[in-house]
Design a protein that fits this description.
Blueprint (H helix, E strand, L loop, with lengths): L2 E7 L5 H11 L2 E6 L2 E7 H10 L7 E8 L3 H9 L12 E10 L6 H20 L10 E9 L2 E7 L21 H9 L9 E3 L6 H11 L20 H13 L9 E5 L2 H14 L5 E5 L13 E4 L7 H4 L2 H14 L4 E6 L4 H5 L5 E7 L2 E8 L9 H5 L1
Parallel strand pairs: 5-6, 8-9, 8-11, 9-10, 11-12
Antiparallel strand pairs: 1-3, 1-4, 2-3, 4-7, 6-7, 12-14, 13-14
């Protein structure tokens, strides 16, 4: 079976998490760059990556790489790529997105226009025609320029992979599903340990955690654009991988996952999101302030995305809010806490230096993922503390 170089974009700084996911699927990493990981895989890998990867934003097929400092070089480079191996005569093809960083060619619209013309010239020559109906399956192209190197890809996913299909409403500064999964994977949390989000918002952290615990593949209940590419991927492969994902589900996995928020409307939306994800029975939601957060058990985990203070009036409340987070955390016996926030004085008011920090972008917002590590439970008593 033909193999491809598959490019998987991810959140900047979280490439190692995605690499581990790809390794766990059984594939060989070829290249790691800022914000993306490239691996080798066949048609089955395209399906498996789209359905199973929790932290990738998309799965792209690499069509080619080449240097280009002028639009003429860009045109020739695009035209020299083997487009006929990917796009059938009736395929609908266009450059969905072009991005340029530190390159002499910096106009996305010009890059898109020239690339489309070059693709047309190549396919005209191959199919011996002057006109394409483009009434078949869609083949969107994504082009990335970095320091005058051009990377040309085909998008197999369609909608971004963070769109699992369960979230229709979200609050301020929401976490994407892919980012929430990546941050969870950076913690030592496992399904047999307590997990609490005191600012749960639309419930993303908790829903992603419950899906992991239940073995629910993130792409199991959505469609992918490449399902229409019958010239490249047999539909039977999609059905087989989807069936494999379904067989792995175990919604009866015992967990203790809890979410709190002071806004009843937000909690209502979180419950609906959890229901759509099929994990509403695994998460306990309750209207509660962080100031009254208590738990009798030891060795649990707090993970949360608290308010950042995007509006001036909210910023005035942040010292008290983060002090309350610190006080509640201190009252929990031997717990660990993980906080993603753009608030630069978070550690000061929490009252403790984080054991680890990681810079992360939540959308366009520069944030920090603070990790406050608690003690590990005694190995022979882990089961006791999870019950």
């Amino acid at each position: 079976m033909r193999t491809y170089q598959l490019v998987t974009p991810c959140h900047f700084g979280l490439e190692a998490v995605l690499k581990k996911e790809i390794y766990d699927l059984g594939y060989e990493i070829e290249r790691t760059e800022d914000g993306r990981v490239t691996f080798i895989g066949d048609a089955e890998a395209v399906c498996r990556a789209n359905i199973f990867l929790r932290t990738a934003e998309r799965v792209l097929i690499l069509v080619g790489r080449f240097p280009a400092r002028t639009f003429e070089e860009l045109f020739e480079g695009i035209r020299n790529l083997p487009w006929e191996e990917y796009i059938p005569e009736n395929g609908k093809f266009w450059v969905k997105k072009a991005s340029s960083i530190k390159s002499k060619l910096f106009s996305p619209s010009d890059i898109q226009s020239i690339a489309k013309k070059a693709m047309v010239e190549r396919l005209k020559q191959h199919y011996k025609t002057e006109w394409f109906l483009e009434n078949g399956a869609p083949y969107p192209v994504r082009i990335f320029l970095l320091k005058d190197e051009v990377m040309v890809t085909l998008d197999t996913s369609g909608d971004s992979l963070h769109k699992r299909g369960y979230r229709t409403q979200s609050g301020a500064a929401p976490l994407s599903e892919t980012l929430a999964s990546a941050l969870l994977m950076l913690t030592p949390w496992r399904p047999d340990r307590i997990l609490v989000d005191p600012f749960c918002g639309s419930g993303t952290f908790l829903i992603e955690a419950a899906m992991m615990a239940a073995g629910i593949a993130p792409g199991m209940n959505r469609e992918f654009l490449a399902e229409q590419w019958t010239n490249l991927i047999d539909r039977k492969i999609w059905y087989e991988i989807a069936a494999e994902a379904q067989e792995a589900v175990n919604k009866e996995t015992p967990v203790d996952i809890q979410g709190y928020d002071i806004d009843p409307d937000v909690l209502r939306a979180a419950r609906e999101n959890a229901k759509r994800a099929g994990v509403d029975h695994m998460i306990h939601f309750q209207q509660r302030s962080v100031t009254v957060l208590r738990h009798p058990k030891k060795y649990g985990f707090l993970i949360t995305n608290p308010p950042y203070g995007e509006r001036m009036e909210e910023k005035e409340n942040l010292p008290g809010l983060y002090a309350a987070i610190g006080e509640s955390f201190q009252a929990l016996d031997a717990w660990s806490m993980f906080v993603i926030t753009a608030y630069e004085d978070a550690e000061r008011y929490i009252g403790r230096k984080a054991d680890r920090k990681r810079k992360v972008y939540n959308g366009m917002i520069k944030t920090c993922f603070y990790q406050f590590m608690g003690p590990k439970p005694p190995a022979k008593r882990i089961k006791e503390y999870s019950e």
